[in-house]
Amino acid sequence: MLNNNDIRRINIRYPLRGGEGDHIDGDDAKRFKISCVRGKLGKEEEDILKKMCFGSEPRPKMLNIAGGFALEDSVCVAVVGSRKITQYGRDVCEYIAGGLAAAGVTIASGLMYGVDLCAHKAAISAGGRTIAVLGYGFDHLKTLRYARPVADEIISKKCGVVISEYEDFQTPEVWTFPRRNRIVSAFSKAVVIIEASENSGSIITAGFALEQGKEVFVVPGSIFSDVSKGKHKLLKQGAIPVDSPLDILNYLGITSSTNSSSQGNSTAFQTSLPNLSENELTVWEILKNETNPLTLDDLLFETKMSPASLNVAVTSLELLGLAKHDSSNSIQKNSLTIPVHW
């Protein structure tokens, strides 16, 4: 359970000028000071916070932090969207966020009901890490039944961070949530919009991302859905459509398989498998014996897994080069790639 002893408070001092963006060097780095009022801060944590702070505008002057940052948090993607999440949005969020987390990417979001909570939970279920940025102080978190259990899980499992720039007593206000969105984006190398109405706060997050020089990815949705209107507007403005976590992993430069044709040897497929989890092995045993592609519904029926668990397993197999999506978005074994042992 999260308690006051888990929360570290840090004060931040910036150079008087310079240091714009997230590039820090020279005198700016020397003048930038983080001092812990409560608790201690490791070197890796300080480096991650420096990049976030210099990437945010306005820059935070104080942070309350529960949990601990890890080196892998330097590769982070924000997954955000509507509070009124649809079943489609939930399925997509679990697939995208879970797949990224399974590949070692930290997931950042705002610990609000809807897409935010779904993204945090998907990351935890995949065995990954997550950063939850609050739009209020820690005292208020203790009263929120939808958010508190997830925050407690992040802390108890040591799989991420819960962070707020507000004093502990700060209550949620109209201005506090949009303001925190710049921090969600600043932690991340890219932002993924799962669902968004025209007035969704995730549109604000996308705006911060563009100001910070981050790429915005959008999951297309139904043209008849209110929670698609905002994200389709972003697509028209140049956001990148995404239908798989692999799209984002490729953008980040995270790959796990090498096409045999690029190696000049089409028969170089490795017969030995990497260490697979129980779920990954279950899916692989089904795929390797099938000559035709299978839909996710087919695999759900065959494996009896939850959609979230299946999505994580399928994404992991894709990353390992053992499975692939075809043009109809069905899944099949991939015999033309060389699995890499992670």
Write the SSE topology:
Blueprint: E1 7-13, H1 26-31, E2 33-38, H2 43-55, E3 62-67, E4 76-80, H3 87-102, E5 106-109, H4 115-125, E6 130-133, H5 138-141, H6 148-156, E7 160-164, H7 176-186, E8 190-193, H8 201-211, E9 215-218, H9 226-236, E10 240-241, H10 245-252, E11 257-259, H11 278-288, H12 296-303, H13 307-319, E12 323-325, E13 331-333, E14 337-339
Parallel strand pairs: 4-5, 4-8, 5-6, 6-7, 8-9, 9-10
Antiparallel strand pairs: 1-2, 1-3, 3-7, 11-14, 12-13
Helix pairs in contact: 3-4, 3-10, 3-13, 7-8, 11-13
Features:
single chain, 342 residues, alpha/beta, Rossmann fold, Arc Repressor Mutant, subunit A, 3 domains, ten-stranded mixed β-sheet, two-stranded antiparallel sheet, disordered C terminus, DrpA_SLOG, Smf/DprA SLOG domain-containing protein, DprA
Give a structural overview.
One of its GO terms (biological process) is DNA-mediated transformation. It holds the Pfam family DNA_processg_A. Belongs to the DprA/Smf family. Residues 58-252 form the Smf/DprA SLOG domain. This is Smf/DprA SLOG domain-containing protein. The chain is α/β, with parallel strands linked by helices. The protein folds into 3 domains: 4-66, no CATH class; 71-251, Rossmann fold (3-Layer(aba) Sandwich), CATH 3.40.50; 257-339, Orthogonal Bundle (Arc Repressor Mutant, subunit A). The chain is 39% helix and 17% strand. It has 13 helices and 14 strands. The strands form 3 sheets. Strands 2-1-3-7-6-5-4-8-9-10 form a 10-stranded mixed sheet, sandwiched between helices. Strand 4 (76-80), helix 3 (87-102) and strand 5 form a beta-alpha-beta unit. The protein is globular, with a radius of gyration of 21 Å.
